[in-house]
Amino acid sequence: MDTTHPSSRHQGLEDLRYLAAKCVRCSLCKFPPLVKVESQATSSICPSIDTYGFHSHSGGGRVLMALSVLEGRSEITEATRDAIYQCTLCGGCDVSCKYVSDIEITEIMMALRARSFDATGPTDVQRRILDNLDRNGHPYESGTREDCLADIPGVRVGPGPTILLLGSAYAMSPERRTTLRNMVRLLGAAGIDVSVLGADEPDVGTLALALGDLKRFDRSASAAIGMLNDSGATEVVCADSEDWATIRAHWPKVAELGPPARHVVEVLDDAVRAGRLTLAHPVRVRAAWHDPCSLGRRSEPYQAWDGEVRKIQGQLLVYDPPRPVNRGSSGCYDPPRRLLRAVPGLELIELPRNRECSYCCGAGGGVAEAYPELATAAAMERQREAGTTGAELLVTTCPGCEQNLGGVEVAGVPTASIYDVLAASVWNQHDSFTNGS
Amino acid sequence: MSIVGVNDKQADPNVTDAERDERRAEVAAGLSRVVGARWVATDPAVLDTYTWQYTAEAITGSNWMQRPLAVAMPADTDEVAAIVRLCNTEGIQFKAISTGFGAWGAATEPDRVVLLDLRRMNRILEVDAKNMYAVVEPYVTANQLQVEVLPHGLNTHVAGCGAQHSVLASATSVMGQGWDGVSMGFSGRNLLAVEWVTPEGEIVRSGSVDASGEWFSGDGPGPSMRGIFRGYAGAFSGLGVFTKAAVKLYPWAGPGHLEVTGSNPDYMATIPEHHVAAVCVVDGWDQMAELGYRVADAEIATFMSRNAPSLMSGVLTADNNTFADLYGVPLFHEMLYALVIVITAESAEERDLKVDMLKAILSDLGGGMLANLGGPEEVRWLMRAVRVLARRIGPGDLIRSVPGAVRMLVRDARRFGLGRLSEYLPSFMYMATVTSGLNIRGVFRFGGTFWTAMGSLVSWDNAIHGAKVGAQVKRKYIDKGVIFDDGADNAWGGFYEGGTYAHLEELACYDPTDKDAADAVFEYVFETNLVSIEHHTGLPINAVGPANSALFGPHCSSYDTWQDRIKASFDPHNTADGSFYVEPDFTPNERMVAGAENVTSDRAPIDPNAPDL
Ligand SMILES: Cc1cc2nc3c(=O)[nH]c(=O)nc-3n(C[C@H](O)[C@H](O)[C@H](O)COP(=O)(O)OP(=O)(O)OC[C@H]3O[C@@H](n4cnc5c(N)ncnc54)[C@H](O)[C@@H]3O)c2cc1C
Ligand code: SF4
Ligand code: SF4
């Protein structure tokens, strides 16, 4: 374990060195697994290298920067720091490398961020985010949970059997309130008795983790887990996909969450399949589904491994015991698709890059805040892809994706949240999704 | 002598760090004027992402090559030419890379080389379906070109390093062996016209494009320069930068898009209706030689390659633990004399005819096959293959194979579903062969890396002869525990141009962070180079770089003297980094000399008439 954070199970760069050293610089992490590539236009999986170009801006490149830093060949300069953080932590590279090898690129990139954070502190933009977290309990300049709750009439505040974690991205953004209202109404219509924690809702730690501030993340995560464990809730439902990835893949490094957790789309999918929620009204639209990285490949559950690498038959490296590897394929992919297919009149279109090979919208990893040029370039690329499919609507479920994809105009495909589309079908509320924002 | 005959150089001790940084800043300013500051990198950690390289440990003794002075990303030919001229003016060197996969894409002298990362030049400029060629920029990968030309009923040659390689780099500058060579040739031979920035910064267009503006021919009416700037192995950027190239395309009797289902890491291709993927099993090197010749003569294979059992098992599995389990099954372990053959056809009649010819050849040779033939025929030919293998391993090992085989079937049924179990092996082989998207699995994962040896472009018989003697050298190193024990046989290779020539490389897998292994592999390759001369197996695949040219030149028409003259004529100031091609003032470094002494004092015994493995 890295000496910096002895209390939790984050792996430090030193712990991950044996995997980093396996990089052969083959560049496969710049592309989806090659057998899945359909056209040159959709042959990249990495928004970072698409925007900045240098090898350092690929998953493999960051693995090599980590080795350079580890071996004391280089210091983390301002340029290095930019190269480290100009990445959405989308995990596309991780999937592709693990088609042929087993390097934990995402873990290495996160450990590199932690090393950078410890060595050089945050950038100015990152400092503002962290100040906001301290001051406001969320990463934004303004907004309160009370304001948000005022916009969601009827929602129960306080402990209850099913706690809905709203997160901050939906809650603090007045433009996303319609979506949040629809989500809560849908859960209600499905007969799920949810309550929210209101002003007490803790920060899950997503941005602190992305920025490499592991001490803060550990504090936030352990406070949030403690509160939920003590709340008496029998289930936690997560509204924000970014937080969902944090809860599934990183909270277990800090402490165990008692009540089982599910994402809202999983809950609604179950409700529709069980006949507790009826999607009655047709929504006649050709809709493409954008898999958020956080709901998909990054939400695979954390799998601890405590073993050793052994050499057999001379130089064959094996793990003892076998090391479980997340390869992106058991993220949450089918529930949103089933939900959309259940909407009468809706024609579901697959984007060429889908499921574990999805192309990131560009908003994650602290990028939307710190490197808007990357966020915009990625969103435009994804929108262009949607445009080639004949889709009339790009549907997703992640406040970051909704905001970022909805913020660019290249292919004339508006973005909508899945909750707005479902609300349209349940309540014949046709204008609710024409523009998700 | 080094494994690639390449010298690792040290920094000039008379230059201080401050002077070096000042120089770097000056050059970066010049580069920024050409490409814009955002496309120039000088940060040490960023530069190190161009320094860590596959097989570096065999050249420098560490995983790092030398750090370049800067990396620049030009957008077009004019910018490339301007950078090359700047390097001439500044008295520094340049090297172009496309993906930059391998030590040859890195600098060998610290802080003196500007790397041109050509990633921004990534357009497919033209697909001329009627005349069957494509014009590409440097960063178009084989995978990208393939998916774009399949809908035109065309396909492109892919090199064995995997389809992420640059089509242009392979065609103009480095090697060109691949699994499809029997029908789609060798990269260097597929090269038609080029646009070339010479080491002095002149822009030259060669081949038909020079005379007619059309890119259809490398041999006129414009000048044919291929032999000069490319030759057998390519100049590894030692003769300038190629900025556009036209390559031949070949007919593709298949769908415009391969259907691939499943999820990572268990994707599975649906074999198109009139295609057949077969692992054809015979017993012994001689029979495998015969099989290769006959299938090539019959012109029925679109893809044909020999993959050692460890390589095949590596491709089929997603991790080393599972691999070890599969490879430990004697039935698979001993699938030594097998060729993977993919038949493509326009119609059922054509497919049936080709399959009948394959069956006739295999019947003659007493072989069998594991192929998507469907129904009882599939089972019949599978049983024949099992019989061949059972004869090899004997009843004891056959019985011992059962638990492992059952484990594999159960595992694969879970991965792909019971219904697709019979499809799985041919489908995997088809997908791996046609897309070249899985190659890395078969070699890197075992120990972390591998290096190759032998592998000349020779007759198929001679390639097999090379594999036999190469295996005997390899056994010595396996016995020392410094390379993975793959039964001493990891000979991978293919056939070219209808089988008129072929190659078999003897791969050696090892842990690159293990110093003993890295040193030993250094020596393994040197020893196989000596064996190549002594046993007449042709110019090995790694016979590049000045030390190897000196070693092999006298045995091969003194090609090294011609290379020296070409280099001197086109690059009088030695501005193009020719460390993997020609270096005017080359002297072997200490590591090379020590390695050579070790090898010559302790040679592996070779029996040229050794029986089968
Ligand atoms: C693991 C591994 C396995 C391999 N197996 C095979 C094989 O089976 N068959 C085979 O043919 N090759 C093989 N190679 C070599 C490989 O063919 C080349 O590395 C590859 O085809 C070239 O594409 P690239 O994008 O990787 O080129 P790069 O790695 O970018 O370049 C390869 C060489 O060409 C030079 N170069 C690149 N672009 C230009 C340009 N525009 N102008 C001038 N020079 C340039 C570079 O300086 C470098 O020396 C293997 C390489 C590796 C690392
Ligand atoms: S991280 Fe993996 S896919 Fe990327 S370059 Fe390294 S080995 Fe290749
Ligand atoms: S996480 Fe995403 S943006 Fe970052 S390097 Fe990997 S693929 Fe690129």
Secondary structure elements and their pairing?
The complex is a heterodimer of chains A (437) and B (613).
Chain A: H1 13-20, H2 47-52, H3 59-70, H4 78-85, H5 92-100, H6 105-120, H7 124-136, H8 145-150, E1 156-157, E2 162-165, H9 177-189, E3 194-196, H10 206-211, H11 214-230, E4 235-238, H12 241-249, E5 261-263, H13 264-273, E6 285-289, E7 308-312, E8 316-320, H14 334-341, E9 346-350, H15 367-370, H16 372-388, E10 393-396, H17 399-406, E11 415-417, H18 418-427
Parallel strand pairs in A: 1-3, 2-3, 2-4, 4-5, 6-9, 6-10, 10-11
Antiparallel strand pairs in A: 7-8
Chain B: H1 17-35, E1 40-41, H2 44-48, H3 56-60, E2 70-72, H4 77-90, E3 93-97, E4 113-117, E5 124-128, E6 133-136, H5 142-149, E7 154-155, H6 167-173, H7 181-184, H8 187-190, E8 191-197, E9 203-206, H9 208-212, H10 226-229, E10 241-248, E11 250-251, E12 260-261, E13 268-269, E14 276-281, H11 285-298, E15 303-306, H12 309-316, H13 320-327, H14 330-333, E16 338-343, H15 348-365, E17 368-371, H16 375-416, H17 421-435, E18 449-451, H18 460-479, E19 491-496, E20 501-506, E21 508-510, H19 515-534, H20 546-552, H21 559-570, H22 590-601
Parallel strand pairs in B: 2-4, 3-4
Antiparallel strand pairs in B: 1-2, 5-6, 6-10, 7-11, 8-9, 8-10, 12-13, 14-16, 14-17, 15-16, 15-19, 18-21, 19-20
Helix pairs in contact in B: 1-4, 11-15, 12-13, 18-19, 19-22
Bound molecules: flavin-adenine dinucleotide (FAD) and iron/sulfur cluster (2 copies).
